[in-house]
Amino acid sequence: MTEIVMQNLGKDFGDFTALANMDLTIGDGEFVALLGPSGCGKSTTMNMIAGMLTPSHGDIRFDGRNMNDVPMAKRGVGFVFQNYAIFTHMTVRDNLAYGLKAQGVSKSEITRRVGEMAELLQLSPMLDRKAAGLSVNILQRLAIGRSAVVEPAIFLLDEPLSNVDAAFRAVMRSELKALQRQFKQTMVYVTHDQLEAMTMADRIAVMDHGKLLQVGTPLEVYNNPVDTFVAQFIGAPGMNLLSGTVTGGDTGNVIDLGSAGHSGPVTTGQGGDVLFGFRPEQVHPDPNGPLEMRIVTVERIGARTILHLDAGARRAKAVLDSETPHPDQGELFRFSVAASDARLFDSATQGAL
Ligand code: ATP
Protein backbone atom coordinates (compact mmCIF):
# COMPACT_ATOMS: atom_id res chain seq x y z
CA MET A 1 0.00 0.00 0.00
CA THR A 2 1.23 3.43 -0.90
CA GLU A 3 -0.05 6.99 -0.75
CA ILE A 4 0.32 8.95 -4.00
CA VAL A 5 0.67 12.73 -3.83
CA MET A 6 0.54 14.87 -6.96
CA GLN A 7 1.44 18.48 -6.35
CA ASN A 8 1.16 21.21 -8.96
CA LEU A 9 1.72 18.44 -11.51
CA GLY A 10 1.69 19.50 -15.15
CA LYS A 11 2.64 18.30 -18.61
CA ASP A 12 3.14 20.36 -21.76
CA PHE A 13 3.75 18.99 -25.22
CA GLY A 14 5.33 21.99 -26.97
CA ASP A 15 2.77 24.82 -26.68
CA PHE A 16 -0.02 22.44 -25.75
CA THR A 17 -0.87 21.91 -22.09
CA ALA A 18 -2.10 18.32 -21.65
CA LEU A 19 -2.26 18.66 -17.85
CA ALA A 20 -2.27 21.90 -15.85
CA ASN A 21 -1.46 22.13 -12.14
CA MET A 22 -2.93 18.93 -10.78
CA ASP A 23 -3.15 18.69 -6.98
CA LEU A 24 -4.44 15.32 -5.86
CA THR A 25 -3.68 12.95 -3.02
CA ILE A 26 -4.66 9.30 -3.38
CA GLY A 27 -4.70 7.55 -0.03
CA ASP A 28 -3.20 4.20 0.95
CA GLY A 29 -5.39 1.47 -0.48
CA GLU A 30 -7.79 3.93 -2.04
CA PHE A 31 -9.51 3.32 -5.41
CA VAL A 32 -9.59 6.58 -7.39
CA ALA A 33 -11.04 6.90 -10.88
CA LEU A 34 -9.71 9.58 -13.24
CA LEU A 35 -12.84 10.35 -15.26
CA GLY A 36 -13.27 12.61 -18.27
CA PRO A 37 -13.82 12.77 -22.02
CA SER A 38 -11.23 11.75 -24.58
CA GLY A 39 -8.21 14.05 -24.60
CA CYS A 40 -8.78 15.56 -21.12
CA GLY A 41 -5.37 14.42 -19.83
CA LYS A 42 -6.23 11.23 -17.95
CA SER A 43 -3.65 9.01 -19.64
CA THR A 44 -1.01 11.75 -19.41
CA THR A 45 -1.55 11.85 -15.64
CA MET A 46 -1.44 8.07 -15.40
CA ASN A 47 1.73 7.83 -17.49
CA MET A 48 3.46 10.28 -15.16
CA ILE A 49 2.43 8.24 -12.10
CA ALA A 50 3.78 5.12 -13.84
CA GLY A 51 7.04 6.81 -14.80
CA MET A 52 6.55 6.58 -18.57
CA LEU A 53 6.34 10.38 -18.92
CA THR A 54 8.40 13.04 -17.13
CA PRO A 55 6.42 15.93 -15.61
CA SER A 56 7.01 19.41 -17.10
CA HIS A 57 6.54 20.79 -13.60
CA GLY A 58 5.38 19.72 -10.17
CA ASP A 59 6.00 16.60 -8.12
CA ILE A 60 4.82 13.06 -7.68
CA ARG A 61 5.52 11.45 -4.30
CA PHE A 62 4.90 7.89 -3.17
CA ASP A 63 4.73 7.70 0.64
CA GLY A 64 6.59 10.99 0.84
CA ARG A 65 9.39 9.98 -1.53
CA ASN A 66 9.80 12.09 -4.66
CA MET A 67 9.41 9.87 -7.74
CA ASN A 68 10.14 12.40 -10.51
CA ASP A 69 13.47 10.80 -11.40
CA VAL A 70 12.69 7.20 -10.44
CA PRO A 71 12.39 4.91 -13.49
CA MET A 72 9.22 2.91 -14.04
CA ALA A 73 10.76 -0.44 -13.14
CA LYS A 74 11.71 0.88 -9.70
CA ARG A 75 8.33 2.42 -8.81
CA GLY A 76 6.53 -0.78 -7.80
CA VAL A 77 3.55 -0.08 -10.03
CA GLY A 78 1.45 -2.61 -11.95
CA PHE A 79 -0.03 -1.24 -15.16
CA VAL A 80 -2.85 -2.62 -17.29
CA PHE A 81 -3.64 -0.94 -20.60
CA GLN A 82 -6.63 -0.92 -22.89
CA ASN A 83 -4.75 -3.27 -25.20
CA TYR A 84 -3.73 -6.27 -23.19
CA ALA A 85 -0.11 -7.36 -23.54
CA ILE A 86 -0.19 -11.10 -23.17
CA PHE A 87 2.36 -13.69 -24.25
CA THR A 88 0.11 -15.56 -26.68
CA HIS A 89 2.44 -18.55 -27.10
CA MET A 90 2.30 -19.25 -23.36
CA THR A 91 -0.45 -20.92 -21.35
CA VAL A 92 -2.71 -18.95 -19.03
CA ARG A 93 -0.82 -20.47 -16.08
CA ASP A 94 2.58 -19.39 -17.42
CA ASN A 95 1.32 -15.89 -18.14
CA LEU A 96 0.05 -15.58 -14.57
CA ALA A 97 3.29 -16.99 -13.18
CA TYR A 98 5.57 -14.80 -15.30
CA GLY A 99 6.03 -11.83 -12.97
CA LEU A 100 6.35 -14.02 -9.89
CA LYS A 101 9.10 -16.10 -11.53
CA ALA A 102 10.92 -12.90 -12.48
CA GLN A 103 10.79 -11.87 -8.80
CA GLY A 104 12.29 -15.21 -7.75
CA VAL A 105 9.23 -16.32 -5.79
CA SER A 106 9.36 -20.01 -4.74
CA LYS A 107 7.60 -22.67 -6.83
CA SER A 108 5.07 -23.57 -4.14
CA GLU A 109 4.25 -19.92 -3.53
CA ILE A 110 3.81 -19.36 -7.30
CA THR A 111 1.42 -22.33 -7.48
CA ARG A 112 -0.58 -20.97 -4.56
CA ARG A 113 -0.82 -17.39 -5.82
CA VAL A 114 -1.52 -18.33 -9.45
CA GLY A 115 -4.27 -20.68 -8.25
CA GLU A 116 -5.79 -17.98 -6.04
CA MET A 117 -5.74 -15.37 -8.81
CA ALA A 118 -7.17 -17.82 -11.36
CA GLU A 119 -9.99 -18.59 -8.93
CA LEU A 120 -10.72 -14.90 -8.28
CA LEU A 121 -10.82 -14.07 -11.99
CA GLN A 122 -12.56 -17.29 -13.08
CA LEU A 123 -9.58 -18.45 -15.11
CA SER A 124 -9.14 -21.80 -13.36
CA PRO A 125 -10.80 -23.95 -16.06
CA MET A 126 -8.43 -22.64 -18.74
CA LEU A 127 -5.09 -22.57 -16.87
CA ASP A 128 -3.47 -25.03 -19.29
CA ARG A 129 -4.78 -23.45 -22.48
CA LYS A 130 -2.56 -21.39 -24.76
CA ALA A 131 -3.46 -17.70 -24.60
CA ALA A 132 -3.48 -17.52 -28.41
CA GLY A 133 -6.86 -19.24 -28.71
CA LEU A 134 -8.72 -17.18 -26.07
CA SER A 135 -11.33 -14.43 -26.59
CA VAL A 136 -10.60 -10.73 -26.15
CA ASN A 137 -12.67 -10.77 -22.94
CA ILE A 138 -10.63 -13.56 -21.40
CA LEU A 139 -7.32 -12.08 -22.55
CA GLN A 140 -8.13 -8.77 -20.85
CA ARG A 141 -9.07 -10.64 -17.67
CA LEU A 142 -5.74 -12.47 -17.92
CA ALA A 143 -3.85 -9.19 -18.41
CA ILE A 144 -5.43 -7.87 -15.21
CA GLY A 145 -4.58 -11.08 -13.35
CA ARG A 146 -1.00 -11.10 -14.58
CA SER A 147 -0.38 -7.59 -13.25
CA ALA A 148 -2.34 -8.09 -10.03
CA VAL A 149 -0.73 -11.40 -9.05
CA VAL A 150 2.61 -9.77 -8.22
CA GLU A 151 0.66 -7.57 -5.76
CA PRO A 152 2.11 -4.20 -6.74
CA ALA A 153 1.69 -1.52 -4.10
CA ILE A 154 0.09 0.66 -6.76
CA PHE A 155 -2.14 -0.74 -9.46
CA LEU A 156 -2.80 1.47 -12.51
CA LEU A 157 -5.51 0.60 -15.01
CA ASP A 158 -5.99 2.67 -18.16
CA GLU A 159 -9.39 1.97 -19.75
CA PRO A 160 -8.98 -1.78 -19.18
CA LEU A 161 -12.58 -2.57 -20.12
CA SER A 162 -13.05 -0.43 -23.22
CA ASN A 163 -12.44 -3.28 -25.66
CA VAL A 164 -14.55 -5.93 -23.93
CA ASP A 165 -18.27 -6.41 -24.54
CA ALA A 166 -20.96 -4.81 -22.37
CA ALA A 167 -22.08 -7.93 -20.49
CA PHE A 168 -18.49 -8.85 -19.66
CA ARG A 169 -17.75 -5.28 -18.58
CA ALA A 170 -20.48 -5.53 -15.93
CA VAL A 171 -18.95 -8.75 -14.58
CA MET A 172 -15.45 -7.26 -14.57
CA ARG A 173 -16.60 -4.17 -12.65
CA SER A 174 -17.51 -6.32 -9.66
CA GLU A 175 -14.43 -8.53 -10.05
CA LEU A 176 -12.05 -5.56 -10.08
CA LYS A 177 -13.69 -4.23 -6.95
CA ALA A 178 -13.34 -7.67 -5.33
CA LEU A 179 -9.68 -7.79 -6.41
CA GLN A 180 -9.00 -4.48 -4.73
CA ARG A 181 -10.83 -5.48 -1.54
CA GLN A 182 -8.66 -8.58 -1.34
CA PHE A 183 -5.26 -7.05 -2.07
CA LYS A 184 -5.95 -3.50 -0.76
CA GLN A 185 -3.67 -1.89 -3.33
CA THR A 186 -3.81 1.79 -4.10
CA MET A 187 -5.69 1.76 -7.37
CA VAL A 188 -5.88 4.45 -10.06
CA TYR A 189 -8.37 3.73 -12.80
CA VAL A 190 -8.66 5.79 -15.99
CA THR A 191 -12.03 5.79 -17.71
CA HIS A 192 -14.35 7.96 -19.80
CA ASP A 193 -17.29 5.85 -18.62
CA GLN A 194 -19.01 7.48 -15.66
CA LEU A 195 -20.81 4.24 -14.78
CA GLU A 196 -17.46 2.45 -14.26
CA ALA A 197 -16.21 5.30 -12.11
CA MET A 198 -19.45 5.55 -10.10
CA THR A 199 -19.71 1.82 -9.40
CA MET A 200 -16.08 1.05 -8.52
CA ALA A 201 -14.24 4.08 -7.18
CA ASP A 202 -13.97 5.30 -3.59
CA ARG A 203 -13.46 8.77 -5.07
CA ILE A 204 -13.77 10.18 -8.58
CA ALA A 205 -11.48 12.86 -10.03
CA VAL A 206 -13.39 14.54 -12.88
CA MET A 207 -11.16 16.11 -15.54
CA ASP A 208 -11.70 18.21 -18.65
CA HIS A 209 -9.26 20.02 -20.96
CA GLY A 210 -6.22 19.19 -18.86
CA LYS A 211 -7.81 20.41 -15.62
CA LEU A 212 -8.99 18.63 -12.51
CA LEU A 213 -12.50 19.98 -11.96
CA GLN A 214 -13.73 18.09 -8.90
CA VAL A 215 -12.70 15.28 -6.58
CA GLY A 216 -15.19 13.51 -4.37
CA THR A 217 -17.05 10.32 -3.59
CA PRO A 218 -19.41 9.14 -6.34
CA LEU A 219 -22.36 10.53 -4.35
CA GLU A 220 -20.67 13.87 -3.72
CA VAL A 221 -20.01 14.50 -7.41
CA TYR A 222 -23.48 13.22 -8.30
CA ASN A 223 -25.26 15.37 -5.69
CA ASN A 224 -23.12 18.49 -5.71
CA PRO A 225 -21.36 18.99 -9.05
CA VAL A 226 -19.10 22.05 -9.03
CA ASP A 227 -20.15 23.13 -12.51
CA THR A 228 -22.41 22.31 -15.44
CA PHE A 229 -19.78 20.10 -17.09
CA VAL A 230 -19.60 17.76 -14.08
CA ALA A 231 -23.41 17.96 -13.69
CA GLN A 232 -23.92 16.66 -17.22
CA PHE A 233 -20.98 14.26 -17.39
CA ILE A 234 -22.06 12.36 -14.26
CA GLY A 235 -25.34 10.46 -14.46
CA ALA A 236 -27.05 8.71 -17.34
CA PRO A 237 -28.76 10.75 -18.59
CA GLY A 238 -26.90 13.73 -17.11
CA MET A 239 -28.43 16.58 -15.09
CA ASN A 240 -31.11 18.73 -16.76
CA LEU A 241 -30.24 22.41 -17.05
CA LEU A 242 -32.99 24.91 -17.85
CA SER A 243 -32.07 28.54 -18.43
CA GLY A 244 -33.96 31.04 -16.32
CA THR A 245 -33.95 34.36 -14.49
CA VAL A 246 -34.42 34.91 -10.78
CA THR A 247 -37.60 36.97 -10.20
CA GLY A 248 -39.83 37.88 -7.24
CA GLY A 249 -42.78 35.54 -6.54
CA ASP A 250 -45.67 35.42 -4.01
CA THR A 251 -43.71 33.32 -1.51
CA GLY A 252 -40.18 34.58 -2.23
CA ASN A 253 -37.87 34.57 -5.24
CA VAL A 254 -38.41 31.95 -7.94
CA ILE A 255 -36.72 31.19 -11.23
CA ASP A 256 -38.73 32.19 -14.25
CA LEU A 257 -38.25 29.35 -16.73
CA GLY A 258 -40.34 30.85 -19.55
CA SER A 259 -42.91 28.46 -21.00
CA ALA A 260 -41.54 25.64 -18.78
CA GLY A 261 -42.99 27.41 -15.71
CA HIS A 262 -41.01 28.36 -12.65
CA SER A 263 -38.96 26.77 -9.87
CA GLY A 264 -39.94 26.54 -6.22
CA PRO A 265 -38.68 29.36 -3.94
CA VAL A 266 -34.92 30.05 -4.06
CA THR A 267 -32.69 32.14 -1.83
CA THR A 268 -30.75 33.59 -4.78
CA GLY A 269 -31.03 37.35 -5.33
CA GLN A 270 -33.23 38.72 -8.14
CA GLY A 271 -32.08 39.53 -11.65
CA GLY A 272 -29.39 36.93 -12.29
CA ASP A 273 -29.35 34.62 -15.29
CA VAL A 274 -29.07 31.09 -13.97
CA LEU A 275 -29.34 27.48 -15.02
CA PHE A 276 -31.86 25.49 -13.00
CA GLY A 277 -30.48 21.96 -12.59
CA PHE A 278 -32.25 18.76 -11.58
CA ARG A 279 -31.57 15.09 -12.17
CA PRO A 280 -33.96 13.22 -14.54
CA GLU A 281 -34.61 10.69 -11.76
CA GLN A 282 -35.69 13.50 -9.39
CA VAL A 283 -38.68 14.52 -11.53
CA HIS A 284 -42.03 13.91 -9.80
CA PRO A 285 -45.21 13.82 -11.88
CA ASP A 286 -47.44 16.35 -10.10
CA PRO A 287 -50.70 17.79 -11.53
CA ASN A 288 -50.20 20.89 -9.34
CA GLY A 289 -46.43 21.19 -9.98
CA PRO A 290 -44.88 24.49 -11.09
CA LEU A 291 -43.18 22.98 -14.16
CA GLU A 292 -44.74 21.95 -17.43
CA MET A 293 -43.12 20.59 -20.60
CA ARG A 294 -44.32 18.67 -23.64
CA ILE A 295 -43.47 14.97 -24.02
CA VAL A 296 -41.57 14.66 -27.31
CA THR A 297 -40.58 10.98 -27.06
CA VAL A 298 -41.27 8.15 -24.65
CA GLU A 299 -38.38 5.70 -24.34
CA ARG A 300 -39.16 2.48 -22.48
CA ILE A 301 -36.13 0.61 -21.15
CA GLY A 302 -37.39 -2.22 -18.97
CA ALA A 303 -37.93 -1.06 -15.41
CA ARG A 304 -37.53 2.61 -16.36
CA THR A 305 -39.16 5.00 -18.78
CA ILE A 306 -37.34 8.06 -20.08
CA LEU A 307 -39.51 10.99 -21.12
CA HIS A 308 -37.87 13.46 -23.52
CA LEU A 309 -39.41 16.84 -22.78
CA ASP A 310 -39.35 20.27 -24.33
CA ALA A 311 -40.76 23.75 -23.80
CA GLY A 312 -39.61 26.01 -26.63
CA ALA A 313 -35.81 25.95 -26.67
CA ARG A 314 -35.60 24.31 -23.21
CA ARG A 315 -35.06 20.56 -23.17
CA ALA A 316 -35.11 18.07 -20.31
CA LYS A 317 -35.43 14.37 -19.56
CA ALA A 318 -37.41 12.61 -16.86
CA VAL A 319 -36.71 9.08 -15.67
CA LEU A 320 -39.75 7.34 -14.15
CA ASP A 321 -40.42 3.82 -12.92
CA SER A 322 -42.17 2.05 -15.77
CA GLU A 323 -45.18 1.60 -13.43
CA THR A 324 -45.62 5.37 -12.93
CA PRO A 325 -48.49 6.80 -15.04
CA HIS A 326 -47.66 9.71 -17.34
CA PRO A 327 -49.35 11.55 -20.24
CA ASP A 328 -48.82 10.28 -23.80
CA GLN A 329 -46.29 11.44 -26.34
CA GLY A 330 -47.26 14.91 -27.66
CA GLU A 331 -49.13 15.87 -24.48
CA LEU A 332 -48.14 18.27 -21.73
CA PHE A 333 -46.51 16.85 -18.59
CA ARG A 334 -46.75 18.71 -15.30
CA PHE A 335 -44.15 17.96 -12.64
CA SER A 336 -42.25 19.22 -9.63
CA VAL A 337 -38.71 18.92 -8.31
CA ALA A 338 -38.05 18.93 -4.54
CA ALA A 339 -36.23 22.07 -3.40
CA SER A 340 -33.49 19.89 -1.87
CA ASP A 341 -32.86 18.24 -5.27
CA ALA A 342 -32.62 21.47 -7.29
CA ARG A 343 -29.17 22.91 -8.13
CA LEU A 344 -28.40 26.37 -9.47
CA PHE A 345 -25.54 27.36 -11.76
CA ASP A 346 -24.38 30.78 -12.91
CA SER A 347 -25.17 31.14 -16.63
CA ALA A 348 -22.03 33.19 -17.26
CA THR A 349 -19.43 31.13 -15.39
CA GLN A 350 -21.27 27.74 -15.47
CA GLY A 351 -20.19 27.32 -11.82
CA ALA A 352 -22.46 26.07 -9.04
CA LEU A 353 -24.17 28.83 -7.01
P1 ATP B 1 -7.87 9.36 -24.33
O1 ATP B 1 -8.93 8.61 -23.57
O2 ATP B 1 -8.31 9.76 -25.71
O3 ATP B 1 -6.51 8.75 -24.26
P2 ATP B 1 -6.99 11.16 -22.29
O4 ATP B 1 -7.90 11.93 -21.42
O5 ATP B 1 -6.33 9.98 -21.72
O6 ATP B 1 -7.79 10.76 -23.59
P3 ATP B 1 -4.39 12.09 -22.95
O7 ATP B 1 -4.03 10.84 -23.68
O8 ATP B 1 -3.82 12.31 -21.62
O9 ATP B 1 -5.96 12.20 -22.85
O10 ATP B 1 -4.07 13.30 -23.89
C1 ATP B 1 -4.33 14.66 -23.52
C2 ATP B 1 -3.99 15.56 -24.67
O11 ATP B 1 -2.58 15.56 -24.85
C3 ATP B 1 -4.60 15.12 -25.98
O12 ATP B 1 -5.08 16.25 -26.66
C4 ATP B 1 -3.44 14.49 -26.72
O13 ATP B 1 -3.59 14.66 -28.11
C5 ATP B 1 -2.24 15.26 -26.19
N1 ATP B 1 -1.04 14.42 -26.18
C6 ATP B 1 -0.87 13.27 -25.51
N2 ATP B 1 0.36 12.77 -25.72
C7 ATP B 1 1.00 13.62 -26.54
C8 ATP B 1 2.31 13.71 -27.14
N3 ATP B 1 3.22 12.74 -26.89
N4 ATP B 1 2.58 14.74 -27.93
C9 ATP B 1 1.67 15.70 -28.16
N5 ATP B 1 0.43 15.71 -27.64
C10 ATP B 1 0.09 14.70 -26.85
From TrEMBL:
Belongs to the ABC transporter superfamily. Transmembrane segments: none annotated. GO terms for molecular function: ABC-type transporter activity; ATP binding; ATP hydrolysis activity. Residues 4-234 form the ABC transporter domain. This is Maltose/maltodextrin import ATP-binding protein MalK. SUPFAM superfamilies: MOP-like (SSF50331), P-loop containing nucleoside triphosphate hydrolases (SSF52540). One of its GO terms (cellular component) is ATP-binding cassette (ABC) transporter complex, substrate-binding subunit-containing. The keyword Ligase does not apply. Its EC number is 3.6.3.19. PANTHER family: MALTODEXTRIN IMPORT ATP-BINDING PROTEIN MSMX (PTHR43875), OSMOPROTECTIVE COMPOUNDS UPTAKE ATP-BINDING PROTEIN GGTA (PTHR43875:SF1). The lineage of its organism: Bacteria, Pseudomonadati, Pseudomonadota, Alphaproteobacteria, Rhodobacterales. Gene3D superfamilies: 2.40.50.100, Nucleic acid-binding proteins, P-loop containing nucleotide triphosphate hydrolases. It holds the Pfam family ABC_tran.
